[in-house]
């Protein structure tokens, strides 16, 4: 019987049973698994991993585990760039775009409110989500670990929080999005990019009392929804101020 030791660092321990957290874990095997298979067998989606060291050297997910290997697995590093060292993560996206699973509809709306491209469909299955994430280079956000373990998913994140606004805070912090905030530039309903429009252009689509009080409007070319700075706008401004 062959043996290897694996250890998970920082928040990756959220995924493993309490008895295995913050300690060396002995793994027994006859045929060496790939590093990725070993990591996911312990409950950790590969999308959560930023760096793997095997015997002190950076290794890809495809590296086959050998007898007496020591494997150290690290989560995403927020404070410095390890791109030259990491062999497991894809090239970072210059302009992050997201895809959310069926359970994160409120988070999708909050991300759109903050100005981020957040695709969402309440009837999309796991296979379709994985394909879309890969084809459109979108970061898949989910609370389903199994979905993130699909081979097609290269960019993804397991959302820890359960309350929608707390989830927004978490995602903004995790992907360092504060510098990219562009509030009220996307349609909350369909994710389309909003454009300025005159009062004349929306006169038939908004109540007369709104036209009497407002002169600035935006519309979504995709679904024709119209937005103005009413009470909802003020409430959303207050929420965004908390970021």
Quick structural summary:
The chain starts with a strand and ends with a helix. Strand 11 and strand 12 form a beta hairpin.
Secondary structure layout:
Blueprint: E1 2-8, E2 25-29, H1 35-41, E3 51-54, E4 57-58, E5 70-74, E6 98-100, H2 105-113, E7 118-120, H3 126-135, E8 139-142, H4 145-148, E9 156-158, H5 164-174, E10 195-197, H6 199-202, H7 208-213, E11 217-219, E12 226-227, H8 231-241
Parallel strand pairs: 1-5, 6-7, 6-8, 8-9
Antiparallel strand pairs: 1-2, 3-4, 3-5, 10-11, 11-12
Helix pairs in contact: 2-5
| Shape assignment | elongated
Can you summarize the main beta sheet?
5 strands, mixed
Q: State the secondary-structure class.
A: alpha/beta
Q: Helix fraction?
A: 25-40%
User: Terminal Cα separation, in Å?
Assistant: 52 Å
Give the low-pLDDT segments.
none
Query: What is the succession of H and E elements?
Result: EEHEEEEHEHEHEHEHHEEH
Count of DSSP helices?
A: 8
What is the percentage of strand-forming residues?
A: 15-25%
What radius of gyration results from the CA coordinates? 22 Å
Could you give the count of β-strands? 12
| Rounded mean pLDDT score | 92
Strand order of the biggest β-sheet: 2-1-5-3-4
Report on this model:
The protein is α/β, with parallel strands linked by helices and 243 residues long. It has helices at residues 35-41, 105-113, 126-135, 145-148, 164-174, 199-202, 208-213, 231-241; strands spanning 2-8, 25-29, 51-54, 57-58, 70-74, 98-100, 118-120, 139-142, 156-158, 195-197, 217-219, 226-227. Strands 2-1-5-3-4 form a five-stranded mixed sheet, with no helix packed on it. α4 links the parallel β8 and β9 (156-158). α2 (105-113) crosses α5 (164-174). It is elongated and about 80 Å long. The N and C termini lie far apart (52 Å). The mean pLDDT is 92.
């Amino acid at each position: 019987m062959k043996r290897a030791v694996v250890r998970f660092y920082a928040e990756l321990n959220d995924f493993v049973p309490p008895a295995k957290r913050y300690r060396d874990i002995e793994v027994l095997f006859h045929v060496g698994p790939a590093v990725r298979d070993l990591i996911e067998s312990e409950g950790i989606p590969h999308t959560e991993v930023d760096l793997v060291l095997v015997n002190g050297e950076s290794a890809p997910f495809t590296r086959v585990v050998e007898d007496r290997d020591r494997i150290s697995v690290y989560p995403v590093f927020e404070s410095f760039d390890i791109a030259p060292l990491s062999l497991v993560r894809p090239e970072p996206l210059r302009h992050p775009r997201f895809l959310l699973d069926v359970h994160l509809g409120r988070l999708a709306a909050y991300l759109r409110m903050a100005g981020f491209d957040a695709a969402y469909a309440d009837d999309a299955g796991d296979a379709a989500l994985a394909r879309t994430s890969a084809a459109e280079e979108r970061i898949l956000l989910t609370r389903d670990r199994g979905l993130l373990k699909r081979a097609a998913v290269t960019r993804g994140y397991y959302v820890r929080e359960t309350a929608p606004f707390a989830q927004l805070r978490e995602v903004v912090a995790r992907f360092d999005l504060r510098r990219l905030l562009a509030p009220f530039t996307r349609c909350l309903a369909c994710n389309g990019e909003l454009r300025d429009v005159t009062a004349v252009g929306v006169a038939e689509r908004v109540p007369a009392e709104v036209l009497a009080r407002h002169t600035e409007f935006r519309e979504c070319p995709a679904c024709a929804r119209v937005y103005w700075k009413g009470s909802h706008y003020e409430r959303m401004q207050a929420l965004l101020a908390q970021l």
